């Protein structure tokens, strides 16, 4: 069992995890790409961006690091962003997939398309 104090300490530690500017830009570019996607009526919001930042920082911390890697962004983009977007009905119908499956495919496609920082 975790105490309130321990939980607050974990939250504070996650806030202190560093995101290098290129990784931060990668995250922003990924979210921005959802807003320009032709199959989406509504892309991920600024709030979704903040939630992705918080999630990747916590992911890095749980992995024993005090910095975020592009792999952290890739690992969490689908679960954090997919449910925060709305597909165009026609695109969804043509896909033959359920809404969540379709949105997961869209985010995965963006992960494959948005350039990943290397240095």
From TrEMBL:
Cited InterPro entries: CbbQ/NirQ/NorQ/GpvN, ChlI/MoxR_AAA_lid, P-loop_NTPase
Boundaries of every ChlI/MoxR AAA lid domain copy: 33-86
Signal sequence bounds: none
Coiled-coil intervals, chain numbering: none
Record-linked Gene3D superfamilies: Magnesium chelatase subunit I, C-Terminal domain
Superkingdom per UniProt: Bacteria
Pfam families, sorted: AAA_lid_2
Protein name, per record: ChlI/MoxR AAA lid domain-containing protein
Species of origin: Arenivirga flava
């Amino acid at each position: 069992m975790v105490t309130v104090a321990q939980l607050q300490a974990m939250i504070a530690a996650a806030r202190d995890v560093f995101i290098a500017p290129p990784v931060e830009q990668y995250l922003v570019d990924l979210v921005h790409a959802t807003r320009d996607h032709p199959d989406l009526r509504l892309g991920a919001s600024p709030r979704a961006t903040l939630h992705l930042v918080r999630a990747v920082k916590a992911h890095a911390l749980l992995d024993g690091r005090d910095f975020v890697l592009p792999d952290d962004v890739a690992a969490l983009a689908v679960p954090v962003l997919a449910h925060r977007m709305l597909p165009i009905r026609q695109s969804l119908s043509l896909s033959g997939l359920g809404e969540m499956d379709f949105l997961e495919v869209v985010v995965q496609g963006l992960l494959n398309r948005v350039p990943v920082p290397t240095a």
